[in-house]
Design a protein that fits this description.
This protein has one domain. It has 8 helices and 7 strands, in the order ααββαβαβαβαβαβα. It starts with a helix and ends in an 11-residue tail after the last helix. It has a 7-stranded mixed β-sheet, sandwiched between helices. By secondary structure, it is of the alpha/beta class.
Length: 260
């Protein structure tokens, strides 16, 4: 029974990826013709439906709790556990994600991400952070919701890596609030899912295969209290948002920052 379930989910996931990618790109083309906003056009509606369907195909259930998500413009910050984070967040809210520049070159996914307004950071460039802040501010002042992962990489899901305050400067410059978001992946019995984190040298194909073999996973999205300090320091914004996320995770670890 488990093998059949795994095979069915894998086939559905591939189908969603290929067909969904084509439909999303068609929606992007339509929105450009009509002059529709990135976060409010047909492509965004298709994206939301696709993400929810993709989650169902993998046996992932979505659970949202906490505060209401603010209407844009707002800078959303979240802990980072897996590539799944983008899928589960986009299933619920229109968001311009900040991603590494390599994603733009991925087959199918890259075109979809770019068309849906993903912002890219070119790691290794001396001016990468400044250029990224500038592009984030541009999107925020245009009235969009922007999300980035201040840890800079994925973690195990039960604790937090140091937060990097530099990109919080976008909220200061654009004078918009910061809203923390806590992501957790749970087994059906409520325990933390050890298979969900995508860390280290893990392979994407094998990671998806492990997920499809599970009875099911609950993706918990807990929206935190907005932090409204548009004239505050980015380090303060980072500390306050990290404290909220750490509390939601049940972490008692020391709060730490990194200016990297």
């Amino acid at each position: 029974m488990g093998t059949l379930r795994k095979l069915k989910r894998l086939l559905l996931a591939v189908l969603y990826l290929v067909v969904g990618g084509m439909i999303i790109n068609a929606g992007v083309f339509w929105d450009r013709l009509r002059g529709n906003p990135i976060q409010g056009g047909m492509a965004r509606r298709i994206q939301a439906a696709w993400c929810k369907g993709f989650c169902r195909a993998l046996g992932i259930r979505l659970r949202v709790s906490g505060e209401p998500m603010l209407e844009p413009p707002v800078l959303v910050v979240s802990n980072h556990v897996s590539w799944l984070d983008i899928v589960v967040v986009a299933a619920e809210w229109p968001v311009a994600f900040l991603s590494k520049s390599e994603v733009a070159r991925w087959p199918i996914i890259g075109r979809c991400a770019t068309g849906l307004g993903t912002l890219y950071i070119e790691r290794g460039r001396r001016d990468a952070a400044a250029r990224t802040v500038e592009s984030m501010v541009s999107r925020l002042t245009a009235g969009d919701r922007v999300l980035f992962f201040p840890e800079g990489t994925t973690g195990e899901g039960y604790n937090l890596l140091p937060f990097r305050p530099r990109l919080y400067q976008a909220a200061v410059d654009a004078q918009v609030p910061v809203q923390p978001l806590t992501l957790r992946y749970l087994n059906l019995d409520g325990s933390l899912c050890s298979e969900a984190p995508f860390v280290g040298d893990d392979n994407l194909v094998s990671h998806v295969a492990r997920l499809t073999a599970l009875p099911g996973v609950v993706a918990s999205l807990q929206v935190g209290e907005p932090i409204s300090q548009p004239h505050g320091r980015r380090s303060d914004l980072a500390l306050q948002s990290r404290e909220q996320i750490a509390e939601a995770l049940g972490s008692n670890g020391a709060v730490s920052l990194s200016e990297g």
